[in-house]
Automatic annotation (TrEMBL):
Organism: Shewanella sediminis (strain HAW-EB3)
Predominant place of localization: membrane
Gene Ontology CC terms, in alphabetical order: cell division site; plasma membrane
Membrane topology: Single-pass type II membrane protein
Record carries keyword Zinc: no
Residue ranges annotated for the POTRA domain, each copy included: 52-121
Role played: Essential cell division protein. May link together the upstream cell division proteins, which are predominantly cytoplasmic, with the downstream cell division proteins, which are predominantly periplasmic. May control correct divisome assembly.
InterPro entries linked: Cell_div_FtsQ/DivIB_C, FtsQ, FtsQ_C_sf, POTRA, POTRA_FtsQ_type
Protein name: Cell division protein FtsQ
Family: Belongs to the FtsQ/DivIB family. FtsQ subfamily.
Amino acid sequence: MSWAEVGQRWKLRLVQVDWYLCLGLLFLLLVVISLSMGAWKLNLIVNDADALPIEAVAIRGERARTSDEEIQVALQDLMKRSFFSADVNQVQDALEALPWVYQASVRREWPAKLKVYLVEQQVVAHWNGDAWLNIHGQIFDAPKRSDIGALPLLAGPEGQSKVVLTTYRQVSELLKINGFKLDSLSLSPRHAWHGSLDNGIMLELGREDKMARIQRFINVYPTLVKQSKPVAKVDLRYDTGLAVGWENAQKESQ
């Protein structure tokens, strides 16, 4: 066999090898294109609110102050998305932005439903006049409602709501077991405590030993009510004693 014949055979083999390589690359390219087209079409379907709409939202949990209409308004834009493209975190945020909603949990339920569980705010007091305080001592803003009964009036500096609520519970419990009801409690910017009872008596408790001072008031009250003048104010900011302001005396001074 001559060198020319050998060279010709190698050329044929190289041509054959290149042909198989081209066919393989072409097949791989077709596969990639097909997968990309499939993924693109799937993405269109998944995000198409007409193809996969959210057909229902199931609301669970006890609701006394959050209406269906408020929920519908809060979710009206989010409901325009498809079942898969709807962001449950955004749905949760939209619901928790409602004034009387404390917490919301959201999950998808195949094929076209969102399940929502709501927990409403449990209000325990008014805070600084126009806000509310929940059972955790957290401040929240919500419209006034006529269906909420009498609540204590609490007040204090920014960041002190939990401290004021805790102190109110302690002082109120001590007064309650002795026949008194605490209507309001406030903490001044200088950290002095002021309270008032449902019978109109004002209590000045100062900064320290507030529980001991409340007990001192309880102990001396039977003596105070024996006086001919009704008590208007009791100043307990003393180490061992107290000062009493009489109602008639205050009216005369005014």
